[in-house]
Amino acid sequence: MSKARRLVVANGPNLNTLGTREPEIYGRQTLADIQAMVDARAAEYGWTVSFFQSNHEGELIDRLQREAPGSVGVVINPAGLTHNSYALMDCLRSLDVPIVEVHLSNLFARPEAYRHVSVTASAAAGVISGLGSRGYVLAMEYLNAVDE
After folding, report:
1. Is residue 44 part of a domain?
2. How far is the CA of 142 from the CAs of 22, 86, 115, 133, 135, in angstroms?
3. Model-level pTM?
4. Residue 87: inside a domain, yes or no?
5. Are 106 and 83 within 8 A, CB to CB?
6. Partner of 74 at 20 to 30 A CA spacing, among 7, 8, 111, 147?
7. Which range marks the domain in which residue 33 is found?
8. Does a structural domain hold residue 1?
C-alpha cells in the first residue's frame, strides 16, 4: 500500500453555487454536502482530504501543483474549464498521481454540443459523468483500489 494518505479534490468554476444553480441539472446538494460525503468516505480509507473550489483557473492550477504531489490521487470536477482549459490539462498531465475527472451531469446528454468535449479528460485515468455526487465516491473507490 502506498505511503501517500492524502486525497486532493479540486472543483472548478461555479461549483460553489451548487444547490441553487440549475438544480434540475446539478441537483440540490451543495458543495459542502459533497465535501461532507467525501470526508466521510476518506475517513474510512484513513485519508485526509484537501478539498477546494475556485472560480479562477490559475488558482486551481497553483493548488494542484502544490498539493497533488505525494497524494493518493486527484478527483477533479473541472466544471466549465473541462471544455477549454488546455492549461489545466497540461497541469493534470504533469502530476505523477492518478486522476479521475467527475461531472455531476451527463456531459453527453446535455443539449449544448460544446459540453460533449472534455480537453481535460485526456489527463485522467477515467471520467465519471452523470452519476451526480456519487461520482466523487466512485472516483475515491477507484483511487483506493489502485493505492492498495
Report:
1. yes
2. 29, 25, 25, 15, 11
3. 0.92
4. yes
5. no
6. 111
7. 6-147
8. no
Q: Locate cell 479534490: which residue?
A: 9
Over its C-alpha atoms, the chain yields an Rg (Å, rounded) of 14
H helices of 46-85, in order, are: 57-67
Decide if 143 is inside a domain: yes
Catalytic residues: 26, 103
Backbone φ, ψ for residue 128 (5° rounding): -115, 120
Position 8: which residue type?
A: V
Q: How many domains does the chain have?
A: 1
Environment class of 114 (CB within 10 Å of its CB; exposed 0-12, middle 13-18, buried 19+): exposed
Which CATH number does the domain housing residue 16 bear?
A: 3.40.50.9100
- b/e string for 122-138 if b means 16 or more Cβ within 10 A? ebbeebbbebbbebbbe
Residue 5's SS3 state is coil
What are the pLDDT digits (tens) for 71-85? 999 999 999 999 889
